[in-house]
Amino acid sequence: MLEEANLWNYLAVAFYAVMIAWDMFSDWREKRLSRTGRDMLANVAMGAGSLVVAALVTGSIFTIFDALYQLSPWHIEPTWYTWLACLVLVDFGHYWAHRFGHEVRIGWAAHVAHHSSREYNFSVAVRQPWTHHYLFVFFLAPAALGFPPVMILTTKSFNSFYQFWIHTERIRRMPRWFEFVFNTPSHHRVHHSSNPIYLDKNYAGIFIIWDRLFGTFQAELDHEPTRYGITHNIDSHNPLVINFHEYHAIARDVAHAHRWSDRLRYIFHKPGWKPGDGPRPIVRRVVALFR
Ligand SMILES: [Zn+2]
Ligand SMILES: [Zn+2]
To answer: Counting CB atoms within 10 angstroms of each CB, which of 33, 66, 81, 171 has the fewest?
Structure first.
């Protein structure tokens, strides 16, 4: 089964290569490649690096999932409906892992790499961080519930595969029912935009339903054109800078902080937190309950 999964991964990488080449060719024909080419190459380098890291760590992650699966009182048989259930559970885990990557600064330090391109094309899909694999902890629940590790890793790979095609401006809108249930190019363009109204919205992997349920959905608005990138854009195509600049910024802030509570907040509060901003709204609400 693992060999079969490997074959699908190779096919996926070949598909990504063809689609990215299509975008490069289009940009060359429209005389935009001199602007977008370096960014696209950086994205491909990020993708290649993330494949190497994945090859190094996936075995250990599999072992951890397997240990939990062995401890589980249930052992789920693979049928079409248990595969579907696993896909939904993994997508739910993805929603929270992705939200962590945006709303906790140490998570953002890894995930920012996916957002620092100011372009939006298929190559941005493979612009993947090299330091986010610890987020496998968000997928431990299916293993504890008795889903075999191969099912979890396969549905997780499919989740990433699904998200490739939504990194495009070629598709404006899908049919209304599809836009309601699934993540689409339109929803994900919002996710990659730094317009204040679009910030920290649409964390979905496959099902946009999670954002609708948990209050993080934002539709793409015709009167608000998307501005891709991050609030403070970096001026580098170096994969090391792309991967580690926010870790460096955290270390600098922590070194200059005067109190331990501030040091912790620089690491675990929302990105952009500064002394005087106070605790998170959720913490404020809990504290108010006990007053
Ligand atoms: Zn994101
Ligand atoms: Zn994306």
So the answer is: 81
d(CA 81, CA 235): 47
Residues 80 and 241: their CA atoms lie apart, in Å, by: 43
pLDDT in tens, 139-169: 999 999 999 999 999 999 999 999 999 999 9
CA of 165 relative to ligand 1 center, distance in Å: 15
Report how far ligand 1's centroid is from the alpha carbon of 46 (Å): 15
What residue type is 117 in one-letter code? S
DSSP 228: B
Are 205 and 159 in contact, with CB atoms under 8 Å apart? yes
3-state secondary structure of 193: strand
> How many secondary structure helices (H) and strands (E) does the chain include?
13, 0
Residue 1 has what pLDDT? 59
If you count them, how many residues does the chain have? 291
The CA 212 to ligand 2 mean position distance, Å, reads: 18
Distance 38 CA to ligand 1 centre (A): 22
d(CA 45, CA 87): 29
Q: Kindly give the distance from the C-alpha atom of residue 144 to the centroid of ligand 2, in angstroms, as a whole number.
A: 29
pTM of the predicted model, to two decimals? 0.95
Secondary-structure breakdown of the chain: helix, strand, coil percentages, each rounded to the nearest 5: 65, 0, 35
Q: Which residues contact 43 (CB under 8 A, 6 or more apart)?
A: 20, 117, 123, 124, 126, 127
Q: Torsions phi, psi of 193, nearest 5?
A: -100, 150
**C-alpha span between 107 and 270 (Å, rounded):** 9
Residues of the chain predicted below pLDDT 70: 1-3, 5
